[in-house]
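TA notes. Do not distribute before section.
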Amino acid sequence: MAHMKEVSNSIIVMYMSCLYQKLQKFKMLHMIAFIDPAQTGVLGCGNPTERARSLSACYVKGKSGQIFLVPYNSGCHWMLTVVNPAEEVVHFMDPLKRRLVTGEWKTIVDNSIKIYNAQKTKKGRKIVTWKNCAGILEQQGDKTCGFWIMHYMKDIVEDKNQEWSAKWDRKGSNMYTQDDIDEVRAEWAQYVAQFQES
């Protein structure tokens, strides 16, 4: 964190814990939930079927209408997937601003929603709706994707009207400054420091 190096699962999880406290403060816990990236990533998280079941189990434990913030690491790059299983809508945020993901991860998320529907005995749509957030801010420099998805999560949590998807729907020229990223790093450090003091 101090040297802007590539961030690990545990750093992302610690920041999600920090954001969870904000949700408590804003009384928004019924609106947003987090999923541990250790359950979703390519490395050491099981085969695609196991990962889809793991995601589905998180949805079932959640509250009705909740969205789930799912950091995903493809092996060398962080992306954020926001899943609304009840509405069968997925927002995709890649700090490199590439188009919608295809292949294994999309299949895993789609299957997780199908499993969720089966457990709820709900007849879902044939195709899950994926939306590319074309207006998200693009990462600057190498190995900074983790910091960017941390800031995406911060922006979502701090949007009390939950209008973030409309804000990022269209391409824009805005970008995070180093001060914006430093704000995330400072929040993370302050949160971690409270455990070292106790």
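Switch to the second chain here.
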Amino acid sequence: MRMRDEFGAPERKFHRPETGLVLSEGSMIVGYASIFGRPDHGGDVVARNAYAASLEAMRLQGRRVKMLWQHDPAEVIGVWDEVHEDETGLWVKGRILTEIGRGREAAALIAAGAIDGLSIGYRTVRSERDAKGHRVLAEIELWEVSLVTFPMLPEARVAAKGEDHDELDWHDIAELFEDARQSLSGV
């Protein structure tokens, strides 16, 4: 059974790298933003190659995955120089821009061990249910990878699942991300 989010509402998955987010040379960070094959607390599993089409489309359009602070589109804090899938999951390597205030704060918080989480912002393009009832995310349109304060658990997890949000808020957020996507893609 294939399902599609008919509103294109933004989704987020938090992941706390088991080995911690690595900060080197004051601003370089590396880690996994997503791990394949592990059910999260919301019952979702990211399949291998789920990001492939999105990453290829971005490459062909000369775009990059955005590095945000706490999923805030107004708080770009760096650049992801490398984003790719490997056998484990979605691996990222980037630079926090310490020339900007929030970038300096983020680098200091990571260095102190106060921040160690990564979270993806995306839209589910294609998913299906497995025999255990998990939603298997087969294709994901990746928008951004954020540094976050509360990465829930070492496993990936949907951020707002189970929280009480009214529909208008989600539509407003979806519209904001869609406007940003169109702006970035020149549509």
